Recover the amino acids of this structure.
């Protein structure tokens, strides 16, 4: 018994010591963890506050820039021709290399003007490939977004809740801060940064992510000899994948090159000069691409069929430049841009408005610092209506500072409908004609407008002019047989006043329009007032909300056939996510737009990259931005307001919206809207 008692006492002592040891180890682990977290939090706070405390403001800084690109085609097929700016790779060589040396002038980190002085490369006519990737060479590390208006920066205090941080290595005066996203979302990145522990200045950073169908790995070295937030050298490795195609690229930019060229030099194609300017040597692969181009040029010159080959090449260049690719030409005083003529990605679909296809173009000529001439046509085709639509505003700006311009517009307008045409014919004819099959309520509208705009003071803007409509019945023969005019004309002077008190307050608009009979063969009389208030507030972390409230009414009308408001009408050629998805009714019956002598409407949207679907595993990586919609409308033909609610999201491939509406407090229908978003930013 004594031995047993001694043994139990010994075991009890060992267990007590073991518990003490475990407690000590646990306490030590907690202390180390808390210390590590405290160190990480302290270093992260210094990084967040560096730009405010130490950074030198950017004030038109100029630097000598060396830029190099390298494209490698791993896989390609004919689908690559659908991608804007990829025509050269889709049909030409598999590998391309090129360089540019010149001057870059910064207004801000991502806002700069580049002047190319010496340019060499293996791409025919120095065409641009994937120009969207050029933005990555100047990341705004301390801003809310890294690149333009996307990719939430891990070095901004506003985005701290989206990332986890950890001090990965401590090297005395510097430390490596590791960051990774809390959720798998395309707007977030991962990587690490070498940071000065005393000030929080980022000395270098490695950032990787996936956005707009591109996997990228960015390495940026900052200027360590100053408090500048501009990069000293950046390198971007990217991989683009699309329907079996894979293109790898490498972009390198060196911003503080020592060799300065005369300002008179511009766009000189000289390899000998580039050899003298190049701040770092070419790789073996890049030299091989250049050598291959020299051999190909020599063989082409020796080819007796050079003329025939040139004709074929020129023919394909025309197809690539004008049919499959965006076209843009720019000079010091002018530019012209045209979207591809054949691009299936420009289709959009709405349950109410059907399938549509749209093209855009733009041209501008700068006459002087205050004067210029612009033309921005918009063309498209709506398959449901079977009609080609266009609008072509030609604007002469005579005072850029005061917003002074004169604009002439030609458009075939929106196809207007009004059931009152049929109702009036039915009331006058007591026969048994089936009017519903005659399409008497459809009219095609051609519009001519002339207006002048000028800013009065710092808050008011006045716009005045005249607008002429020529509306032609779709079924002209039936209208004639019924003894009704098939063409209606109206000419109406108008005036619009806009009040913008400040960027933080709503923009208020009031307009008055009155049609004058017999003026330019006008046979329609009406008087109309409209009022509108719109407000968009951009929040941090790429969030924003918008509100639009307005109304309008007719005080005098000679006919009920055409009720046509400026701020409340149907658009058969809707734009994508970034344009008209807010402030519009998606499921409203087309007849309702032109059926009431008054309307009162309100629309509100909220947009965020981190909302509902983005919080879900696997799904969040496919969603870029989400929106919720709420719209209310009151017109004279319904007893209670029409209500429309919706939810939508966009990603690299498409945008989709799901909507439901309620009429007279009862659920009415469910609908959707779909547009392609592929390469919209390209």
């Amino acid at each position: 018994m004594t031995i047993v008692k001694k043994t139990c006492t010994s075991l009890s002592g060992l267990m007590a010591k073991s518990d003490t040891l475990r407690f000590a180890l646990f306490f030590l682990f907690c202390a180390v963890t808390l210390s590590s977290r405290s160190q990480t939090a302290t270093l992260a706070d210094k990084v967040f506050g560096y730009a405010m405390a130490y950074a030198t403001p950017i004030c038109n800084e100029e630097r000598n820039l060396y830029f190099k690109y390298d494209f490698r085609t791993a896989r390609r097929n004919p689908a690559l021709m659908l991608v804007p700016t990829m025509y050269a790779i889709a049909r030409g060589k598999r590998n391309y290399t090129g360089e540019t040396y010149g001057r870059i002038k910064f207004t801000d980190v991502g806002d700069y003007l580049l002047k190319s002085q010496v340019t060499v490369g293996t791409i025919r006519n120095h065409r641009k490939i994937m120009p969207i990737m050029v933005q990555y060479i100047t990341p705004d590390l301390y801003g809310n977004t890294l690149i333009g208006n996307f990719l939430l920066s891990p070095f901004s205090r506003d985005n701290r809740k989206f990332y986890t941080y950890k001090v990965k290595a401590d090297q005395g005066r510097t430390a490596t801060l590791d960051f990774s996203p809390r959720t798998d979302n395309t707007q977030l990145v991962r990587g690490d940064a070498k940071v000065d522990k005393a000030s929080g200045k980022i000395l270098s950073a490695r950032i990787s992510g996936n956005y707009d169908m591109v996997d990228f790995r960015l390495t940026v070295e900052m200027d360590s000899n100053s408090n500048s937030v501009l990069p000293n050298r950046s390198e971007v490795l990217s991989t683009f994948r699309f329907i079996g195609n894979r293109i790898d690229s490498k972009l390198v930019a060196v911003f503080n090159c020592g060799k300065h060229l005369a300002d008179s030099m511009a766009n000189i194609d000289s390899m000998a000069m580039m050899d003298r300017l190049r701040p770092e040597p070419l790789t073996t692969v890049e030299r091989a691409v250049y050598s291959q181009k020299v051999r190909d040029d020599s063989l082409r010159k020796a080819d007796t069929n050079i003329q025939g080959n040139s004709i074929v090449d020129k023919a394909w260049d025309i197809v690539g430049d004008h049919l499959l690719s965006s076209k843009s030409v720019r000079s010091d005083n002018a530019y012209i841009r045209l979207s591809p003529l054949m691009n299936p990605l420009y289709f959009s679909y709405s349950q109410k408005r059907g399938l549509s296809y749209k093209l855009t173009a733009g041209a501008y000529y700068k006459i002087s610092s205050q004067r210029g001439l612009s033309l921005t046509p918009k063309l498209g085709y709506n398959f449901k209506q079977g009609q080609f639509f266009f609008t072509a505003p030609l604007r002469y700006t005579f005072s850029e500072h005061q917003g002074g311009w004169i604009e002439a517009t030609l458009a075939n307008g929106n196809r207007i409908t009004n059931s009152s045409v049929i109702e009036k014919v039915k009331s006058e004819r007591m026969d048994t004609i089936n009017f519903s099959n005659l399409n008497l309520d459809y009219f095609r509208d051609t519009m001519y407008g002339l207006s002048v705009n000028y800013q009065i003071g710092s808050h008011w803007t006045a716009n005045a002019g005249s607008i002429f409509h020529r509306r032609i019945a779709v079924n002209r023969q039936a209208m004639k047989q019924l003894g009704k005019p098939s063409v209606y004309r109206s000419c109406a002077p108008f005036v619009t006043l806009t009040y913008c008190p400040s960027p933080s307050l709503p923009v208020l608009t009031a307009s008055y329009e009155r049609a004058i009979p017999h003026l330019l063969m006008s046979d329609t009389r009406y008087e109309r007032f409209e009022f509108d208030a719109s407000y968009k507030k951009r929040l941090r972390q790429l969030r924003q909300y918008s509100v639009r409230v307005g109304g309008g009414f007719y005080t005098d009308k000679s006919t009920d056939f055409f009720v046509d408001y400026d701020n409340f009408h149907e658009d058969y050629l809707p734009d994508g996510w970034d344009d008209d998805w807010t402030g519009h009714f998606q499921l409203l019956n087309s007849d309702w737009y032109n059926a009431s002598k008054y309307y009162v409407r309100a629309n509100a949207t909220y947009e965020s990259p981190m909302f509902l679907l983005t919080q879900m595993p696997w799904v969040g990586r496919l969603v870029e931005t989400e929106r919720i919609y709420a719209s209310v409308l009151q017109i004279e033909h319904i007893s209670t307001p029409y209500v429309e609610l919706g939810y939508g999201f966009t990603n690299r491939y498409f945008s989709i919206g799901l909507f439901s509406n309620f009429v007279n407090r009862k659920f009415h229908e469910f609908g959707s809207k779909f547009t392609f978003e592929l390469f919209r930013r390209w």
